[in-house]
Amino acid sequence: MSEVIDFGKTDGLVPVVVQDDTSGAVLMLAYMNRAAFERTVASGYATYWSRSRRTFWVKGETSGNRQRVRAIHVDCDGDTILLRVEQQGGAACHEGYESCFFRRLDGETWRVIAERVVDPASLYPPKP
Amino acid sequence: MSEVIDFGKTDGLVPVVVQDDTSGAVLMLAYMNRAAFERTVASGYATYWSRSRRTFWVKGETSGNRQRVRAIHVDCDGDTILLRVEQQGGAACHEGYESCFFRRLDGETWRVIAERVVDPASLYPPKP
After folding, report:
1. Pick from A9, A40, B24, B96: most CB atoms within 10 A?
2. How close is the nearest chain B Cα to the Cα of A127, in Å?
3. Distance, CA of A91 to CA of B31 (rounded, Å)
4. Which of B22, B27, B29 to probe the A interface (max A CBs under 10 A)?
5. A60-65: long-range contacts at Cβ-Cβ below 8 A with a sequence spacing of 24 or more?
6. What's the angle, vertex CA B126, arms to CA B123 and CA B128, rounded to 5?
7. pLDDT tens track for B77-92
8. Which of B29, B93, B101 sits opposite A15 (nearest CB)?
């Protein structure tokens, strides 16, 4: 089933739009290579490829805010995935917001238009 | 206001998630460079950068199914845009579906889970 997805365009990666299956909010954008896609399907939890760390990234592995997969869609060109998830812990964003898209353009100014749902310090507590 | 957006990561382009402002459906993913972003803001209609044709792409310029901008969001890292739009003509996808993500994984099979809202032939009629 991963054959439908075109991993050939951008260094073996496809962008993944992540949408909350209940609220419909667009939570974040991440990337998958074929192996991350297959791990996501097999485990039922979102697993991405971190472009900066160059490693698999099980979303929420550190914070506990994992993403349970509810549905996986592919677009007409086969080069983008839409993942509908149950966002555990209520926050997808490392800054403590439900969605990473918490800033909206208002005239010429970006304004924060959401309330934090969790304290970011609680997501990544300092190691003892 | 485009200074907040990090156009430096991928050949001057950022991915743009396009969401219907009314239905909440994720319609498509496209790309903008800084100039396309500024044209979008100035015109109020979604203008992307076509990676394949290497040119600006006013969505709906041919089909008439333009996207009126309702809101522009940026993510925490400043490297992805979320565009909330009014999708004119009801279909964002060139195949005649509301959303380009009309296929969903069902076991190991991708199934079409939406109905066409317009005849694709009517979107791009043959030139006389």
Report:
1. A40
2. 24
3. 26
4. B29
5. A60/A88, A60/A89, A62/A123, A62/A124, A63/A89, A63/A94, A63/A123, A63/A124, A64/A88, A64/A89, A64/A123, A65/A89, A65/A90, A65/A91, A65/A92, A65/A123
6. 135
7. 999 999 999 999 999 9
8. B29
